[in-house]
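Re: the request from the purification team.
They wanted to know what the chain is likely to look like in 3D before they choose a buffer screen. I agreed to run a prediction and write the result into the notebook, where they can find it.
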Amino acid sequence: MPLYEYECEKCSYHFDKMVMRYSVKVNCPICGGDVKKLMSTFSVGGSHGKAANLPADFGPKMCRNC
C-alpha cells in the first residue's frame, strides 16, 4: 500500500497518509486545509535488511566533469 507524505498549505503541518487510490482527496488532519504531496524517499528491501539483487557498485555516481 502506498504511503505518501503531505504538507498543509495553510498551517504547514507535515504528515504521512496511506492512500489506496491517487484520486482520493486528502486534507490536513489538523485544520482541514488543502495539502501538497511531497517528494518521498523509498527503500528497496531484501532479506536481512539488505538490498536484493543490486550490483555491488550500485549508488550515486560522482560527476567527473565538475
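For the purification team: The CA atoms of residues 41 and 57 lie 20 Å apart.
Please add any questions underneath this entry.
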